Amino acid sequence: MKLGNDRIKKKFDDIDGKIGLIMEYCQSLEAENRELLLKINNLEADLNGKSKAEDGFSEQEAFIQSKTEGLIVKLNNFSNSLNKAESSNR
User: Tens-of-pLDDT digits for all 90 residues of the chain?
Assistant: First the structure.
């Protein structure tokens, strides 16, 4: 009977060792998962910031484009009025 008990004890010790390894592995995976989640959150925050900055740049670009077009129209009108004045003076 002693031999059977020793084998059973050894099996339980083996199982206990394997469970310990699995628990350590799970803990390391959980730690890695926490790090990855933190990295994802940081990347999402960076992306949000860049997206907001891009929106601001787009608005600024549209404003500049509008002002530039307005100035070109004024210059064209001025140029046309000068051409008309020169034509009437001839």
Answer: 566 888 999 999 999 999 999 999 999 999 999 999 999 999 999 999 999 999 999 999 999 999 999 999 999 998 888 777 677 766
- pTM value? 0.59
Integer CA distances (angstroms), 28 to 34, 42, 66, in order: 10, 21, 57
How many CB atoms lie under 10 A from the CB of residue 36?
10
DSSP string spanning 26-89? HHHHHHHHHHHHHHHHHHHHHHHHHHHHHHHHHHHHHHHHHHHHHHHHHHHHHHHHHHHHHHHH
Q: Which token pair is 5?
A: 């008990």
Q: What gap in Å lies between CA 48 and CA 38, rounded to an integer?
A: 15
Residue found under tokens 């890695």: 32
